[in-house]
Amino acid sequence: MAHADPAPRADSARLWLDANLADRAPTPIDNEWRLAEMPWPDAYPTIEVQLWIDSDGRIERFELQGEAASDPVVQQLFASFSETPMRPAYFRSVPVPSTMRIQLWQGDGPEPDFVAPLAPPRAERAPRAHREGRPQRGRLAMAHCTTWAGFVMAPGWRATSRPPTNSASVGILRML
User: How far, in Å, CA of 103 to CA of 6, rounded?
Assistant: First the structure.
């Protein structure tokens, strides 16, 4: 008898706001993370974790980052981490599902200290495009509206604050 794959969850297509873009980033209630009661592993002075927090403040999932992710002691320490009660991220006074990277380390007291959210990791520099053997320089332009933000590497494009004719507040990209 063959088993069919389970239907995808309704929230599998959910969009997760980067907590760095939120008006208020998610935080653990009382600033306490739920970890197993055991000593902090000496091999890892700091541990980075990627979190996905729903709009109700529940940690839907988390991923340990780097070498610590494969260490059984660290996995045991973080076994109850998703039970940490959270305040969700807010964007324009509305709770939203979000994702963030945090860094934890052994604190002075029983709870670990943390920094959240961490800035996004730096992207690798794009290779230069060559045109007739000469490097072509690009300009970094930022486009932004109320629902998204993006960065574009586009040779010959630049940002301008002059609004298009159908908008009073949105910047546009203009070809040089």
Answer: 34
Domain boundaries, the chain: 13-115, 136-175
Best mean pLDDT range from 83-97, 119-133, 150-164 = 83-97
DSSP string, 44-83: -SEEEEEEEE-TTS-EEEEEE-GGGGG-HHHHHHTTTGGG
**Pick from 130, 110, 144: nearest CA to 38:** 110
Question: Would the CA dihedral through 148, 154, 159, 164 be positive or negative?
Answer: negative
Q: CA 63, CA 72: separation in Å to the nearest integer?
A: 14
User: Is the entire prediction scored with pTM above 0.70?
Assistant: no
Looking at residues 161-173, what average pLDDT do you find? 42
> Amino acid letter at 143?
A
